[in-house]
Each structure stands twice: as structure tokens, then as C-alpha cells.
Fold this protein.
Amino acid sequence: MTPWWGKVFVVWALSRLVTTSLILVLASVQGPNAWTGASPKYTDFATMWDGRWYNIVAMLGYPSVLPITDTGEVGENAWAFMPGYPVVARLLMELTNFPWAPVAVFVSVVFSLGTALLFYRLMARVQPPNTALFAVVLFCAAPLSPILQFAYAESMYLFFLTLALYLLLERRYWLLYPVIAVMALTRPSGLAFALALGLHVIHRFVTRARDPFPRHEWMLAASVALFSALMGLVWPITAWAATGDLMAYTDTELAWRAPYIGYVELVPFTAWFQGGVWWLGNPWGIVVVTALILTFAVLLFTPAVRHLGVDLRLWLASYGLYLLAVFFPQSSTFRLLMPMLPLLGAAALPRSRVYRVAMVALFVAGQWGWLLICWGVDGYDWTPP
């Protein structure tokens, strides 16, 4: 009988064959662009876009002086990209003497396998084995799964996020400290996870009559929540210390939305409405964003999502609130939704073979669509991945 990890490995390997084939087809017709020549080889094609920024961080580190645009605003720079992933890649480069591109892709691929294995274990805590395995199928075939083998931090981040969620469900709070530390320095997530942990503590305290929550345990869980919140502030503080500019990190992040709405102050919970108006005009932009918020809130209370359990729903709610508070909606927002991967567990519940085959086919078609729209470059491209 094949062990669970063997089944997950087969699913992962087959999915990478499909995804790699799609990537190679698109690379073969890719024209010259800012990162590569025509028809680039795989590793060059896989290190475009933000992969170049991670390359800069790995080789040169971060600027001590922020770049300033002609209008006096902070321009795009490396402080927007956290050090976890490029540091791992650079260490491996030093050990192997291999160049950036193959090493960066290798790191992402290895972490994608690790995430698939952990995701099965996470889903198996709340779903039957067959459903947990199909959730892994959906994860590996998801429309944005090509990014799991590109020079982006998503594979590494999802690995540590999935591990953190698993430890939370296991209530192994001590082990969360190092996991959160790495996770929060790989992708912005410390504040969102702190909120989820805080809500977890409150829920356990309220329900302590049927689920004992002794004093030493809630103090430990609360301290981990506080630690996560502090880790969420470490990178902005580091940027401030290195540049002397209190708003170095925030202003750097705002530079990426300037082409859409110009340079504006970061006012929490306004960016989605600003984006809605930019994309759809007023009042439809406001109406659509409001409808999306309400739809997501209702989704969290549907039977399929409730089946995931309280803690995973608290993470979904916390991360959704974090996105609403600070991110501007554009083409890379699809990538920013990847930490909501527990929702794939809800999507995996139906056991109909027709449904499951259709979902996989739809997801693979979505990969091709995402690659065409967001990864492939056609002239001046304003749809970054």
C-alpha cells in the first residue's frame, strides 16, 4: 500500500510535468523583453519580473539611500522584497558555486514539494484522507501554481505558513517561534498571523469549559501572538534603521501602486476602494468591492468552509482583513491570495468524479490563462504577476 507521502509525491511530480510543459510552450514564443531575449531557456524565463529584484537582494543586499523620482517621491527599490528567500538562495549559491537562476528555481521547487507534503498533513487534520489528497491535487494544479517553480518567495513562504498552521492546530505553541520568525521575513505576514493567534486565544478562552485552556498554555499562546506582531514590524523597522527614513518600507511599497493612482498616503482600508474606482469608476468600483467583502464574509460561514474548523477560518479571516487593510488590487493580487490555500480543502469536499476532473481541468486551464496574462511579456506589460 502506497504511504500518504508517496501519493503526495506522485501528485506533485505529475503536476510539475504538466505545469513545466505549459511554461516551456510559452517560453518558446516569448519575444525579447526587459529580462530575456527571444525564446529564453527555462531558468531565464523563470527568473523574470520580481525574480530580478530577489536576484539583486541576493547579490547586492539593500540600499542605504532610497532612490528618489523626478517628482521627489521614493521609487521602487529592493526594500519591498524580504530577505528570507534570497538569503537561502545565496547560501546555496555559495555552497554549490552555481549561478542565481538555477539555484533560485531549485529552492522554489524544493519548497513546493515540502508545502505539498505539509498541506496534506494540515488537511488530514480536518478532512478525510481522500479529501485531503484531492486538496493537494488542487493546490498543485491551481492557476497560480507555476509560481511555485519560479524565482519568487511564494513556495518558501507557503511552506512555513502551512507548517505554522499545522503547529497551531496541534497546539504546539513553542515551535511556532522559529517558524513565525522565518515566515515573517519571507513574505509580509507577521501581523496577519498575530491577529489569527490572538483570535485563537480568545476563542479558546471563551470555550475553556469544554476545551480546557490552563493558564500556562494561554500565556504561551498569547506570547506567541505578541511575538508574531513584533515580527510583523521588524522589517519596516530594519528599513528605517538602515536608511534613516521612518517610512522607508511603506513608501517603497506605495511606489508600486503609483502608476495606477499616483503617490498617496497609506490609509488603512482605503486601497481596495481606490482600486475599485480606478478599475471600474464611481460608484461601481465601490459597489463591487463592497460586494466582494460581503461575499467573502458569507463564504467563511458556508458549511464547506466551516468544515475546516475554527482555527483555519480564523486565519482566512485575519489574512483577508490584512489584505483589505493594506494592499492595492491589481494583477498581482491573485498571487497575494495564495496564503488562503486552506480554502482548497473546502473546494475538495465534493466526491463526485465528474466534479473533481472538471476542477482539475479548470485549474490547469487557469494556469495557461495566468501565464499568458501575468507572466508572459508582450510589449509594455502592465499586468505583473
Remarks:
- The chain has a mean pLDDT of 97.
- The longest helix spans residues 215-243.
- DSSP finds 19 helices and no strands in the chain.
